[in-house]
Amino acid sequence: MRPVRFNIHPKEAAIADAIGMGKAPDGVPGEGFFATQLSSVVGLARKNSLWPLPFATSCCGIEFMATMASHYDLSRFGSERVGFSPRQCDLLMVMGTIAKKMAPVLRQVYIQMAEPRWVIAVGACASSGGIFDTYSVLQGIDQVIPVDVYVPGCPPRPEAIIDGFMKIQDLVGQESIRRRNSEQYKALLNSYGIQ
Amino acid sequence: MSLNNEIVQEKLIEKFGDQVSQFATSYGMLSFESPKEMNLKVLQFLYDEPSLAFTFLTDICAVNYPDQKGAELVVVYHLHNLKENIRLRFSVSTSLENTDVYTATKLFESANWMERETYDFFGINFVGHPNLKRILNVDEMDYFPLRKEFPLEDQTRIDKDDEMFGRG
Predict the structure, then answer these.
(1) Residue A80 CB: number of other CB atoms within 10 A?
(2) Mutation test of the interface with chain A: which of B159, B161, B162, choosing the one with the most A Cβ atoms within 10 A?
(3) What's the pLDDT tens digit per position in A99-149?
């Protein structure tokens, strides 16, 4: 018997079968062309290349580290590149308790992100303050910035974070490219006092 | 000669007479009180007296006893003699109406942030403190959260319906 027993099994012959491709949007295919809506193409590109910005303050951040690592592998969803500059990132992932003193910092990070930008609140604390029903903790980050997806859990498992991430992908893929210029969107930001 | 709680107590009584009171020992640690006007004199004496030499300020904190009328707030100093490894606890009490207490920052630099924290949570007005403003809580906070008169829950919340949490 070999002392080291990995790599004794032959590799799968057709590795291409194991690769998932993004589904093409509805459209009119033809010889050398494919006609579809611009927003579908933009949505397809955006949703499969989201750059997350982790804003991790506590235990949910540890779950996110597991989500990013090889076992759960967030990069399968096109998020290989986790950015730490708000200017480069599309998706703000808020994981953990946000104290009231941290709220202006979080808001500033959100403002520094370029449009289009999405926000996911991971865990009970980011979504609602969680168990910290107290004077020092922000009772949900939606008091200072708009949130697209909430992930429940204390902390949520990596599967739950991935599920929330896929919900964000659905939102991103279906979003009209004009949404960020709409009156409703401006009213939403104005209701948070942004711009 | 080794220092012990009895010697500390004797020296304090010898120096301050009946201005120091309520001597007690719990878990081997001496505690006593004095009027709040005396706090600096007592701390200075404990610092300067060569045989006592309580030169290290471990902690300052406060306690709120809402039932002690006229002495609702108690400021507690924890002191440490590093050479003899003896600790003591010294407290002064003050009323809610007049929370002025002299600052210990001239004696201990480390009192600066501790007094800011005590001000932040209990509203003790440390007279003479160089920078008495909130240190841990948001600057906009308009109350002192660890006083007993404030309930634990954030009263401004509108999103928690009691019935949904089984306490309706």
Answers:
(1) 12
(2) B159
(3) 999 999 999 999 999 989 999 999 999 998 888 888 888 988 999 999 999
Tokens of A167: 């919900």
Cα A75 from Cα A97, distance rounded (Å): 25
- Torsions phi, psi for B10 (to 5 deg): -60, -45
**A82 secondary structure, DSSP code:** -
Euclidean distance between CA atoms A194 and A112, whole angstroms: 11
Question: Domain A49-191, CATH 3.90.1170.40 — does that match?
Answer: no
User: How many angstroms separate the CA of residue A136 from the nearest CA in chain B?
Assistant: 7
Residues from chain A contacting residue B150 (CB–CB below 8 Å): 135
B65 touches B33 (CB < 8 A): no
Q: Which amino acid is at A167?
A: K
Type of residue found at B27: Y
* Opening angle at CA A154, ends B167 and A62, nearest 5: 160
Measured in angstroms, the CA of B116 and the nearest CA of chain A are apart by: 16
Q: Annotate A49-78 with b (16+ C-beta within 10 A) or e (fewer).
A: ebebbbbbbeebbebbeebbeeebebeebb
Most distant CA atoms of chain B, gap in Å: 66
Q: Of the candidates A56, A108, A104, which has an alpha carbon nearest to the alpha carbon of residue B138? A: A104
Contact A122, A95 (CB under 8 A): yes
Check if the beta carbon of residue A74 is closer than 8 Å to that of residue A66: no
Picking from B138, B152, B154, the nearest residue to A139 by CB comes out as B154
Smallest CA–CA distance from A138 into chain B, residue? B154
Q: Where are the beta strands (DSSP E) in A31-101?
A: 33-35, 52-56, 91-95
In chain B, the domains with their CATH numbers are: 5-150 (3.30.460.80)
Reported as a single tens digit per residue, the pLDDT across A149-160 is: 999 999 999 999
Other CB atoms within a 10 A radius of the CB of residue B137 amount to: 18
Distance spanning both ends of chain A, measured CA to CA:
68
